[in-house]
Amino acid sequence: IIVGTPTGSTAYSLSAGGPIVHPLVSSMIVSPVCPRSLSFRPLILPSSSVVKLQVHKKSRGRATAYMDGRDCGELLQGEYIEVRKSPYPLMCVNRSDLAAGWALDINQLLQFNRTFSYPHDTPFSDDDPNSREE
Question: 86, 67 in Cβ contact below 8 A?
């Protein structure tokens, strides 16, 4: 399970099928990674939420907690961690017009509403000098 902020875990969450959330939206994102059930979907929660992740008491296995890619240890049966917004905000350098700049950056990065270009540049294209018939 990925728990993050709009600016903190966008790449991880997006690759797991999670949402893209504007950085000015004060929220927390919960995205399942390879869920076993179709009913477990990504969530966008208010930033005041507290998310409790607990290993079931009768679980046959353990869980490992990673924070910002760092192994923080194992959780045994019945143990849990709570994730909440820090009372100490992290100051970031942003564009003067974050709202417009963010949308343009996302569109360029993910190439929304763009068609595939043809012909494709492949090793099998007609422009390959080795594939000419004589």
Answer: no
Per DSSP, the three-state class of 124 is: coil
| Residue with tokens 């869920």, as numbered in its chain | 35
SS3 state of residue 46: strand
What distance in Å separates the CA atoms of residue 77 and residue 42, rounded to the nearest whole number?
Answer: 25
What is the dihedral sign for C-alpha 21, 19, 43, 12?
negative
Long-range CB pairs of 52-57, under 8 A, 24+ apart, other chains included: 52/80, 52/81, 52/82, 52/83, 53/1, 53/3, 53/80, 53/81, 53/82, 53/83, 54/78, 54/79, 54/80, 55/79, 55/80
Per-residue pLDDT of the chain (134 residues; tens, 9 = 90+): 999 888 776 788 888 888 888 888 899 999 999 888 888 899 999 999 999 999 999 999 889 999 888 999 999 999 999 999 989 887 777 666 666 677 777 777 777 766 766 555 555 445 555 554 54
Distance between CA atoms of 127 and 100, rounded to whole angstroms? 40
